[in-house]
Amino acid sequence: MFDLGIQGFFDDIAGLFTTPRVLGIDMGTVSMKMVEVSKKVDVLTLENYGILETREYLNRGNAAIQTSSLKISEREAIPLLKKLIEETKPHTRQVIASIPSFAAFFVTIDIPAIPDAEVGKAIQFQARQYIPIPITEVSLEWVKISEFQNERGQSMHRYFLTAVPTAIVKKYTAIFKGAGLRLVSLEVETAALARALIGNTNPITMIMDIGGQSTAFIVIEGGAVKRVTQSDYAGSTLTQALSRTLDISAKRAEELKRRKGLLGSGGEYELSTSLLPFLDVIIQEGERARRDYERASGKQIEEIMVVGGGANLKGLETYLKNQMHLKVRTPDALWRVRRSAEIEPIVPALNTELASAMGLALRKFL
Fold first, then answer.
1. Which domains are assigned to the chain?
2. Using 50, 70 and 90 to split pLDDT, how confident is the model at 66?
3. Closest Cα to residue 314, out of 250, 251, 242, 257?
4. What is the pTM of this model?
5. Nearby residues of 360 by Cβ (< 8 Å), 6 or more positions away
């Protein structure tokens, strides 16, 4: 779990653990997703959820809530957040929110085995080589992921480092305050996904999180995030490709993509042939992340799981299995919570769409 230990920001975090419910809000590039989870005795319940999408980004790139340039638009985000709360009417205003993985820097650092009291200074010194902004302008979290001996027989420790610009934290604080919500914690979405989807005893798993404007490849071993790789190819890439090939509007292309996916036949065969070259680029990025992890760790990734808005592309699981030769495991983000029988028909879709938001909410209770 990579929480952002920012002094002063978490002054009221004690209040998070004294209330029986919380909102997990995943603010993506083109959508906002929320779950409200409560706990009574030992039973967790999904009380409420909401998904709010903005389709304007399809025709206006500047209508995205946030972009991979690390910018988040208060002008776009606050009204949408207010709309989401107005429509869902949650019974709490306490929020745990996600910071997108593309807004963070992820680095694997090897340092000699030294006393724990000296690790922080050593990591901050080395991190300056990899983080492209001043170290004084980021918040750092790290976790030791392995121990080994180098070629000289020296004992080494490998750490997985996450750095988030403090400017991003300040922007999120302003957005949630502007929407009338109490932001009590922020967490990089990779940690939330690991919590929602992966247990400590699962095989080594790659999560492919296909968002609107970026895709993250997250390797999880023993319940902990070990590697994160980003790609700028994502759901909107596929939509724009379909729009250009079929000479239709982006909105129409998005509708066709969601309805037919890779399963078009006959006159619709052109849908899949238009999507596959760009989907293959995403898969190639995943294969590169897989090779890098396996080469560095000496271990093999055994399965893959696809989440995010792009995960509901029909035919994707079969295509992915054939291309990557990995077991494709169906996400089950809601397995820990009791929920209304009325939503069971759409639970498979919610398991992919709400995975990050659910992981955020679960932080309060697990």
1. 13-104+165-240+269-362 (3.30.420.40)
2. low
3. 257
4. 0.85
5. 24, 25, 26, 35, 96, 97, 98, 187, 192
